[in-house]
Batch of 3 targets.
Target 1
Amino acid sequence: MGCKVNHSFNSLALFKVSTKRANLCPRKIITFSSSTNSQIQQTQEIKTNHYTVNFKTLGACKLGIAKYPDFGYNAEGGKGTGSASRKAEETTSDDDELLVSFDLNTLYIPPLTSSTTKFLGLPLPPFLKISIDPQHFKGTINQNSGQVDLEFKAKFWFTIGSLYKAPALIVETVLTSEESLVGKMRSGRGERLDKDGKCRLVGVATVDPIDDFLMNSFLGLPTECLADLNAIISFTPSPY
């Protein structure tokens, strides 16, 4: 009889202990799950605010200076990478404007040579070369509207074989998908990013005289120049 009472008491005690443990465990699991979901959500929000941006130049471009006819320019093969981020971490769904900055170490724009450039329908002389050395390339891109406005500064080096090398011409402008700043001689209108990332960027700049009488006289410096580039700009989400 005593043995049966002890058995019932022990069973009841074990039932109570088991019930308490069962009540405690789900609370720990729910709390952990909630914290994990919050961390995942925060990580996803950060990823949507930062991007790697890729820039490629295409053919059918134009470059013009002074009152001379435009150069037909095949810029295919030009490229560059950079970073892009929203103006603020907390943004609305309508705020799609990104701040973009390209890494100059990755930026390459093909030179003007006999294989890339034509003037009046004829290739440039094989010994003539104009190299482009970018110094600054950054601005804003609106993913929603497709508008692009990139500040661009570069040194243009004019050489004739090993016989002649002029001081660098400094070109500074805003390459835009909209209407360029209208100068006295030059103007242009670009095209916004389409669904494939293609766009046309135009910019007008004033080129100041340099310490070279030949170039100043030949180009009539100071004067204006026009850049008209076909390009592709694409974005890849970045975790940082």
Target 2
Amino acid sequence: MNVGRRIFNAIRLSNRTYSKLPPELVVFMDDSMVVSWHPEQPFPYECSKPLPPMIPKPTSVLKIGEAEIKSVFHKTNPKMTPHELAKLTYTTKHRWYPRARSKKAKTTLPDRPYL
């Protein structure tokens, strides 16, 4: 009997009691080459993820989507306008509030209309 086959049988029998893995086939071709076969392990279903949903490509020639169009024509609360302007221009929101002193100013006629 081949020496490699005896070693293979001894390893296989000794590993059978300690290992819960499926047996692998190892063949010693000669002193310089060893051939082994490892069967593919089944992948557990619990570790898999579902495929991402397919998003259909728009057939429109416009480069913007429907969501962006809706956001442009959507009526917003007037109180949110200073916040949006402040984000766009990187300033404070107080810059975009109307000045109260201009509302309180009197609209008096000049005493000389030619000035």
Target 3
Amino acid sequence: MGFTLAVIGRPNVGKSTLFNRLVGKRLAIVDDQPGVTRDRREGDARLSDLRFRVIDTAGLEEAFDESMEGRMRRQTEMALEEADVAVLLIDARAGVMPLDAHFAKFLRKHSTPVILVANKCEGAAGQPGLMEAYSLGLGDPIPLSAEHGEGMLDLYQALLPYEEKAEADQQAAAFEDRKSDDKQTGDEIELEEGEEAVLEDDDPEKPIQLAIVGRPNVGKSTLVNRLVGEDRLLTGPEAGLTRDSIALEWEWRGRQIKLVDTAGLRRRGRITDKVEKLSSADTRRAIRFAQVVALVLDANDMLEKQDLTIARQVIDEGRALVIVANKWDIINDKGEALQKLSDRIQTSLPQVKGIPVVTISALKGRNLSRMLEAVLTVYGTWNRRIPTSRLNEWLAELTEAHPPPLAHGRRIKLRYMTQAKTRPPTFAVFASVPEDLPDSYTRYMVNRLREDFDMPGIPLRVMMRKRKNPFAPKS
């Protein structure tokens, strides 16, 4: 990326809409309610042939204390320090407000160059506000409609000098958006008996997608801040501070990791606010595109019903799961608490045995290395591939020790087995009458696979397939 652009302005002027327009994806939550964005969000942006990093910020508030607004302002100021150029966005339909003038004065004293943009200029309603924008003393305002994409050419012309300067100062590092490579589902795999699937190996150059999820106020953002070593995300005693899923590129022991901090998930029946509904949908999307999910629990109230709902969703999506018990430093009887947690996992999540559990204190930075070691271990298991020859030896031993049941007076035969995909490990078994094989036998096979091939704590899938009749006419 050549340069970094920070989008700054008071609440509800359209910063997140412009951010989404520049990155070409609906990453930031957008709503008419002011103050939806609280953390600063980063994305890879493109505008014609320009490639740059863009930072969406919380609305600037005139607050300098330890209130939520004050902490949000500090996050915005940190983004401004990182940026090569800033866009001050105003709402042309509302005109220049006192808060716009206040922050224009602040930006004029700052070393970061500023481009003034009057948003919502579609139609004639924004013209008076566009004229008022000259009074801010930041040069000619650019008329724009982030929602409709109008005026982007003018913005391109204003940003072009910063791209040229960045190319002159340093070699642009060409980073492409990395998309999750495990979009396949087991149902999409078509194999013939005797055929082996082409399994994709783990690429150590690609970052591990690690999503941090949990109920509100369990310490997810505090954990991410402690891992990356800076106050990158807004934290505080208020529940529900995080609203967007914020992705951060990071490295630990030479391995690239993309940390995704998410909004807290409450029971759907308790969600009435529109923005919280959008935040919950964003979190569920982050789970779908993650590779490993760290479910953060409050050690004072572990694995309540909503925690179990989140865990089951992670397992159903086929993601590797690590359970992280936070705030462990304030637990008195740690042995009893750990035993209760272990019993609850065994009782409530029997479909995935051996889920790793790590106790930490995000606030004090305790046991974070153990958590990350567990993440790398379960990620390796999630990528496990087993040779077809070994699987068929195992299948023969299994059916000899515990034969499949009878169907219509004849024994069901399991003829061939191969691994269809990794992430999670998925196996195709060719049977004489697969539709008659009971689910209990499939569960038995899954449990034995987990034990015999040492694959604890991850979802495993076994798909029954019917061999094609070689004498049937070909279509």
